[in-house]
């Protein structure tokens, strides 16, 4: 599997190779090491340094990720990256960014996802749909909208479970 690029079906989101299956298993919290609760640090937690929202302008898929770190309460974040085609790619990009920031102890599990249309100049954000790869997650779009609204209180944030 080393060096293999994850491939997903464009219509169904189903993983097409071992690399893709590994990404999905990891994103669902079923692969990789699980953090060591005994390694909790003192003072401000590492999750406090992670922004709740990191989204790109335009219309993109997104994922809601539950982050965990040893000795800390879980934290929900909303993430996407411009130019990526699949929800698992969004997860991988988010986790890679945390690792590059030196936060290797942080683990993530995808709660759900859908699409976000984010236009900062117009101060609007619309969250809707679902992830074919990860399935529908009840309340995910509503909770994601609440997270985005808290991060962008001057924006009009709407959500729906309709659409893909």
**Helix vs. strand class:** alpha/beta
Report the mean per-residue pLDDT as an integer: 88
From the N-terminal CA to the C-terminal CA, the straight-line distance is: 31 Å
Low-confidence stretches: 31-42
Helix percentage: 10-25%
Q: Could you give a short account of the major beta sheet?
A: 6 strands, mixed
Would you state the CATH class of the domain at 51-159? Alpha Beta
- Rough outline: globular
Number of helices: 3
What does this 3D model show about the protein?
The structure is a single chain. The protein is α/β, with parallel strands linked by helices. It has a domain at 51-159: Janus/Ocnus (Pyruvoyl-Dependent Histidine Decarboxylase, Chain B, 3-Layer(bba) Sandwich), CATH 3.50.20. The protein contains 3 helices and 6 strands. It has helices at residues 18-27, 87-100, 140-151; strands at 53-54, 58-68, 75-79, 107-119, 124-128, 156-159. Strands 1-3-2-4-5-6 form a 6-stranded mixed sheet, with helices on both faces. Mean pLDDT is 88; it is low at 31-42.
List the helices and strands and how they pair.
Elements: H1 18-27, E1 53-54, E2 58-68, E3 75-79, H2 87-100, E4 107-119, E5 124-128, H3 140-151, E6 156-159
Parallel strand pairs: 1-3, 5-6
Antiparallel strand pairs: 2-3, 2-4, 4-5
Helix pairs in contact: 1-2
């Amino acid at each position: 599997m080393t060096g293999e690029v994850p491939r997903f079906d464009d219509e169904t989101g189903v993983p097409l190779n071992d690399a893709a299956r590994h990404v999905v298993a990891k994103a669902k919290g079923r692969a990789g090491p699980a953090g060591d609760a005994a390694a909790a640090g003192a003072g401000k937690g590492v999750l406090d340094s992670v922004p709740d929202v990191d989204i790109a302008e335009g219309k993109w898929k997104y994922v809601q990720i539950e982050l965990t770190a040893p000795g800390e309460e879980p934290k929900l974040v909303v993430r996407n990256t411009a130019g990526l085609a699949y929800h698992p790619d969004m997860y991988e990009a988010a986790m890679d960014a945390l690792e590059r920031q030196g936060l290797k102890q942080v683990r993530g599990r995808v709660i759900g996802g859908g699409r976000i249309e984010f236009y900062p100049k117009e101060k609007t954000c619309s969250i809707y749909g679902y992830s074919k790869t990860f399935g529908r997650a009840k309340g995910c779009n509503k909770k994601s909208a609440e997270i985005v609204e808290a991060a962008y209180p001057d924006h009009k944030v709407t959500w729906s479970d309709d659409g893909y």
